[in-house]
């Protein structure tokens, strides 16, 4: 029983650290928060449009029609644009495309929480930026350096364990962490219209991959549950793994070193390296997706390039060219020039989150 | 028509270079050739055993029984060893496990042919080892340095083009190249018993991947045709890819730089990184497969670890501890210690190649 008491004590200490960490996370979120109304009122024409069988959370606009038309063209035998099932590859960005990324990427909130949790084992962090800033209660300073500092925090806090152990840590965190705006688990903040699109594509013989700047194992912890996407269909930023025998038992250890940054040109590179085929449909929401969309557009035959444009400050967020998180600038220009499909969230999505709707079953 | 003549001339020049290159390849093969009889006589008990419906090219020995028993255990609902279909992952090495690797890896023969083909565009090669040795007609010297020199040749001759262009080059080479012992295309030299095993596993709900030290794009050029394995199921040594826009057209260029060496510990590392699940069955034939087999063995539940032991100098080759190509030494000891399944090619395979058998249909 002494062990149990010890465990309880350790558990309480962890809880204490965790609650401190959550406060820090909220501080980050506050620091990054966009201004604007946060009421959950719906746009005027959503509800009437979201009632058909196909893609019911999409409003009845040209955007939904463009998706349905494309799928019909590539799946109808005899159509000049017909694509055999084995070649119907679709790739989706994750943050900001399939789930909420504002005011700060979910994985960054997780990493900041972990800095506080792991600080006792890393005394040097107290005096080393960017960790010192987080531990001093100023995570916004740690993140001000942009992607490099964020990657440093992620690598340091996501290393030294097996992928399995790491995924369990992510699971545990997701079970208690809440997005401050909605006070809901982050996995509630997946976009219902995009879930329907993933299902719709799979039903039409598409092979659906996630291709995201997020870390592969961070996503694998929950993408099967949230999106019905298996681990082998998750391509992300990856850490180096190191194989070793620990007392005769083979283990793989996550090293604090990046093997691949799955952002910008890294996306088509990883798609080719891992899948070995070119998507016929791709969806993103930021400049980090531009090269994936260009690569998709560059193939022969019918193609669909989509961008989620965050235009709805009332129900979600409104941002594009002027944000550090999910900036959509060059890709928005490219979409206009090449006539790619831009989803206007406010106009095209009748429902954004499943929890908005009355339960139907 | 002037163009056509120019093209013909270029074509003849290519043919000339190609025939010179083939002579070089044969020299390598000769240099590496193992001694021993080359007659194609069959072992005594093969033919009578290879007549059942399940795995017909396998002799009726405990090895075939072990495979069939394992598959029955993991696929029978209610069995304590039952594994749901989505978790039936099988990984296979390629060289020496699925096709012939002696006297020299096929990809090395291809690379040596390419050194001669590409030499005009790389004048420095005439004086730079290991290329100079190949161009001077001594490929065996170029290969004497072991894996590092081989990788250098492969990287230099497999870079600067798109994966598609490279795969077309591989296709063209395979169409005319012949293994000197059998005077047949290399893709004829896949092992019939292993083809049957791949099919047998897929029919029982297994997801079959190739996990090989060979270069991913080299394999992807022909693995669908030869093994019915799609590009996304081929994991190999990979070159860095670089995305760029060429006159507005997005391309991916193979760089002369390795991203991942898929050998030894690199195999379980890539399996976890790309598939994100642990195999329940793995097959290899050399020490380069040891860590993949250990990783497979280290999982919970029923497991199958297999090694192809090349014991048949009459029908194929006989080698294990004393070869530079496909050395089987530590992995053979590990198999004995842990009771993994060792396929004795001479005893366990009634037929090795499809072309040995009279046509049945």
Describe this entry's structure for a reader.
Two copies of one chain form a homodimer. Chain A is 42% helix and 16% strand. Chain A has 361 residues and is of the alpha/beta class. The first copy, chain A, has a domain of 242 residues: HAD superfamily/HAD-like (Rossmann fold), CATH 3.40.50.1000. In chain A, strands 1, 2, 3, 4, 5, 6, 7 and 8 form an eight-stranded mixed beta sheet that branches. In chain A, strand 3 and strand 4 form a beta hairpin.
Largest interface: A-B, 36 and 35 residues
The helix-strand sequence of chain A is HHHEHHHHHHEHHEEHEHEEHEH
What's the average pLDDT of chain A?
87
Helix content bin of chain A: 40-55%
* CATH class category name of the domain at 3-21 and 45-102 and 184-348 in chain A: Alpha Beta
- What's the main sheet of chain A like? 8 strands, mixed
Shape of chain A: globular
Calculate the terminal CA-CA distance of chain A, rounded to whole Å.
46 Å
**Rg value of chain A:** 21 Å
* Backbone structural class of chain A: alpha/beta
């Amino acid at each position: 029983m002494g062990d149990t008491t010890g465990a309880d004590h350790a558990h309480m200490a962890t809880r204490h650290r965790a609650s401190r960490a959550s406060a820090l996370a909220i501080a980050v979120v506050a620091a990054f928060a966009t201004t604007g109304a946060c009421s959950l009122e719906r746009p005027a024409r959503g509800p009437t449009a979201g009632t058909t069988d196909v893609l019911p959370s999409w409003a009845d606009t040209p955007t939904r029609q463009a998706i349905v038309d494309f799928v019909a063209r590539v799946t109808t035998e005899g159509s000049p644009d017909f694509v055999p099932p084995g070649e119907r590859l679709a790739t989706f960005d994750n943050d900001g495309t399939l789930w909420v990324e504002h005011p700060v990427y979910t994985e960054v909130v997780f990493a900041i929480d972990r800095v506080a949790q792991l600080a006792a084992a890393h005394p040097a962090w107290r005096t080393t930026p960017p960790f010192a800033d987080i531990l001093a209660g100023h995570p916004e300073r740690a993140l001000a350096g942009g992607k490099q500092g964020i990657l440093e925090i992620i690598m340091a806090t996501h290393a030294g364990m097996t992928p399995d152990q790491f995924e369990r840590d992510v699971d545990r965190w997701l079970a208690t962490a809440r997005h401050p705006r909605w006070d809901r688990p982050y996995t509630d903040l997946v976009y219902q219209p995009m879930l329907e699109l993933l299902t719709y594509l799979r039903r039409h013989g598409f092979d659906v991959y996630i291709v995201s700047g997020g870390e592969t194992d961070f996503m694998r912890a929950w993408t099967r549950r949230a999106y019905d996407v298996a681990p082998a269909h998750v391509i992300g930023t990856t850490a180096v793994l190191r194989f070793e025998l620990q007392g005769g038992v083979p283990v793989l250890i996550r090293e604090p070193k990046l093997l691949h940054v799955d952002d910008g040109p890294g996306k088509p590179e990883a798609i080719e390296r891992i899948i070995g085929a070119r998507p016929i449909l791709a969806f993103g929401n930021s400049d980090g997706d531009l090269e994936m969309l260009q690569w998709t557009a560059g193939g022969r035959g019918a193609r669909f390039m989509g961008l989620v444009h965050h235009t709805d400050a009332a129900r979600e967020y409104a941002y594009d060219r002027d944000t550090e998180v999910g900036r959509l600038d060059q890709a928005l220009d490219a979409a206009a020039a090449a006539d790619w499909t831009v989803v206007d969230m406010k106009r095209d999505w009748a429902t954004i989150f499943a929890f908005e709707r009355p339960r139907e079953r």
